[in-house]
Amino acid sequence: MFFLYKQEIFKLLKKKSLWFCLLFIILQNIGVAILGNAYPKYINVPELFKYDFASLSFTVLILIAASSTIISTEYEYNTIKNIVMQPYSRTMILISKWLTILTYAIGIYLLSILMSLMNKFIFFNNSFSLTDRLNGKENMIWQDWLIVNGANFITLWLILSIVFLLASVMKKGAVAVIVGVVGYFAMNIIGSMMFVLIERWEFLKWNPLNFLNYPGQLANVGILSELTHLSNTQLLIGNLSYIVLFMGVGLYFFSKKEI
Description:
Order of helices and strands: HHHHHHHHHHH
Helix content: over 70%
Protein name: Putative membrane spanning protein
Organism: Companilactobacillus nantensis DSM 16982
Number of strands: 0
Strand content: under 5%
Pfam family, one: ABC2_membrane_4
Keywords: Membrane, Transmembrane, Transmembrane helix
């Protein structure tokens, strides 16, 4: 199992796209920070900091692409046969790929966090303090920052579990990426209309799209909780449950997929 994981990490590190994406996150993070520093009257810098200067949104897209292709490209380039011929079950093969994306996700999140912290002290050292409280909130900025990052990481894996499921069914990497990215934007659009349906049909609050509101509800409990009809604890448990469900279904399809 550890050997499979090492193989996947080695293949990931050899991809030029990995280093391009990491460089992009660094430049994007700095660029947005510079923009916030140049137009402080129009940009809420503390709120921008809480979301890692917009890096969280780009991170989702990068990891959707990585998760879509880590499985499908094995079939596209016919390398899956070499992997399956090794003395490892398909379950172990897929889990090693999950762990590889988990490692990538942790790495890119830590990069975003470190860059945001660095930009805070370089560009906004005198603008706000990490111990400030915004709009009368109980939490300090640094607490909200870590909560937002943690919650986004959880909802990221709800999205990635769906992407892994799709990638386990499809054989074309490009198709899996397109479906994953388009699906991500579609979920955000549908999500804005979903609250009306939840208000009318209460049971719809348990649909997986509603659980993507977890980070937003933690940041704005009084507002979003009335729309999602769920508590923070329910949103957390629901996210974890759907992640296990979708990844389990993806594992089933991967084990039955023809080589």
